[in-house]
Amino acid sequence: MKRLSLLVLVLVTLTGCAAIPTNTQPKPIGSKDSKASNTPAAPEPRQNIDPFMLVRDFLNATANPDSDYAAARAFMTPEANKNWDTKNPTIIETGFSTVPTSQAAQDKTQTVLLQGNYVGRLGSDNAFVPQLGEFRIPVKVERASDNQWRISEPPLGVYMPQNLFNTTYRRVTLYFYNPEFTVLVPDPRYVVIPPATSIPTRVTELLIAGPGDAVRDTLVSALGTETEKFSDTKESDDGALEVNLTNVGKDLTPEKRKQIVAQVVKSYSGVTSSRVRVLVDGQQILPDQRDYRPSDVSATAGETLLALNANLQGMLVTDGSIRSLTDGNPIKGPAGAGTYGAVSAAQSLDGSRLAVVSREGGGMRLRVGELEQDLSEVDQRATTLSRPTWQLSTGQGTEVWTAVDGNSVARVTRSDNGSWTAKGVNITEIMPFGSISELRLSRDGTRAALVIAGKLYIASVVRDNQDVSLRSPRQLQPSILAASVQSIDWLSQDVLVVSSSLPAWPVTKVYTDGYKMDRYSQSNLTVPVGSVAAAAARQVQVVDSSGLWSASDITDVWKSSAIRVPSGALVFYPG
């Protein structure tokens, strides 16, 4: 494509609807075009500092990413500066050390040992990837011609202490669609903050690049693969944030245009409080509306599909029967009467169907059917079955999953004649981690949270024609939760609530990218905390040895329920 002339750019900026000359192809303005031509020189390192402080100051200088980390490069020799790769920073714990090695120090050269613990890294998609373990990296330094120490062999790539990462990067949540284009799904990334005015453009670039590596085979974008920026994303004179795109795809139907608007507007909902204006080649994408707020796109984003009906207040499994969480009374039908000797259960998102795991002989059996009616036996016998979990459906639930004997996963689907049949899920990437005790599908159906050998994992649900797989598994918060996890549930599309046997972390809120973790109040709870139930716009419910407790937020003191339940009871919301 040829570049737009400066005159055309000025006209588009001033008029907003000026016609583009037919003899010139529009060209998106790339990030290189928007870089400042005069960048202030990076500050020099402090004079006469020793090698150990030099390496420490070098890592601290990574807080300034301007001009490809020029501030950190100032600590290097010219040759080291030339070869240093700054892509995909590695995040380390703030309390790192710089200590001597066993090698004897020389007058002109010395080796400093950089050691500490990993937190994670940013992938090429700017998504956080958890990383566990210690590191011990030799960093060589030498005296320069002015007798000042400089780094001659730095670590491979940027090693950024976590406190600096928190001030240098900002978490943004992009949105992409499930394969059916019925629900928008969050995909968190991290962008450099300074300068803050460039954050919208960085978000646009990531949005155009598509779903992150872990969900690339799970989510889809409404933007065509050839989409580019038409101009940088910035605030217009009237206060709206203008997202100006080009090459968004051929045959843009009104429905596809609405999907693009919803995806873009939702992706900026955590970045700006301004109205969002979606443009294609400088022209508004939909003729009937110019600017949008998140509430304008909730229907296209599928929010109503995920929202639980206000009448669905949750249930309990206790003493073999299914009871209402509202008053503790048994629900109508054989499941409530205790006919099946229920061990665990799950209610479909719309509330119309129930899946129950019951004991039978020396094993367990799954039953599925209409709520308050007889449940059909599924031909899936096992020694153990995990608590069932329902897959997203636009109507009544038609697919429910369970882990079988800890080493396989079955998805039970409903045929047109009303029968329920068990099919396998490919868990090749999951199997090496151990036995699965808990499995919870996100309510948008695109991710699975699992407890494997007491550890918390997240995986992507990938559907390829008739084959279904769990892929890209990642352990979350391994250094804190370790193998202590008891139960899990989805609070929102990208946040889990986790109960554990840890006295200091009985119930936590864990973000699915694994970077952040918030602790609920410890008041009144007794570890281990067993069953947990969570959902958007619902109180978190947990069961410990003394009964059923609820809280609305992480700062709330847990309140005891009037419903008396034994310590082994299970609490659940639809999903």
UniProtKB/TrEMBL annotation:
Query: Residue span of the signal peptide, if any?
Result: 1-18
Return the annotated region ranges for Disordered. 22-47
Origin superkingdom: Bacteria
This chain's protein is named: LpqB family beta-propeller domain-containing protein
Sorted alphabetically, the keyword list is:
Signal
Q: Which organism encodes this protein?
A: Lentzea sokolovensis
Task: Identify the residues that the record assigns to the Lipoprotein LpqB N-terminal domain, covering every copy.
Answer: 44-165
Q: Which Pfam family, an example, fits this chain? A: LpqB_N
The segment(s) forming the Lipoprotein LpqB C-terminal domain are 328-560
| Database matches in InterPro entries | LpqB_C, LpqB_N
